[in-house]
Amino acid sequence: MTNYELITKLEQAQYLLSEVYHWANTEMSNGLQVSPLKTNDEVARLMSAADGCICEALDELQWDRQ
After folding, report:
1. Residue 47: exposed, middle, or buried by beta-carbon count in 10 A (0-12, 13-18, 19+)?
2. How far apart are CA 59 and CA 45, in angstroms?
3. What's the rounded Cα separation, in Å, for the pair 39 and 36?
4. Which terminus of the chain is more exposed, N or C, with fewer CB under 10 A?
5. What is the predicted pLDDT for the residue at 36?
6. Is the CB of residue 26 less than 8 Å from the CB of residue 34?
7. pLDDT at 41
8. pLDDT score of 30
9. DSSP character at residue 2
């Protein structure tokens, strides 16, 4: 795979992670009140960590491209 292909795939993965992160930060209705579910915080944290790893990989690939 070329650096361009790798960068494109990582950017696609980043977009998908952002959708999950957005879901994790959306308040859910539990029938009585609107509040975020406890597990959503952990999902958001994990998506943020994964995004950070992708950012580091993109930095490395784009550095190699220059």
Report:
1. buried
2. 21
3. 8
4. C
5. 54
6. no
7. 85
8. 56
9. -
Distance CA 28, CA 5 (A): 37
Rounded CA-CA distance 55/47 in Å is 12
Whole-number CA gyration radius for the chain: 16
Model's pTM, two decimal places?
A: 0.75
pLDDT for the residue 10: 96
Q: Can you tell me which residue has the tokens 């994964």?
A: 50
Q: Which residues of the chain, if any, have pLDDT below 70? A: 28-39, 64-66
SS3 per residue for 6-54: HHHHHHHHHHHHHHHHHHHCCCEECCCCEECCHHHHHHHHHHHHHHHHH
Q: Would you state the pLDDT for residue 50?
A: 97
Residue 23 in tokens: 């879901």
Give the number of other CB atoms < 10 A from CB of residue 23.
13
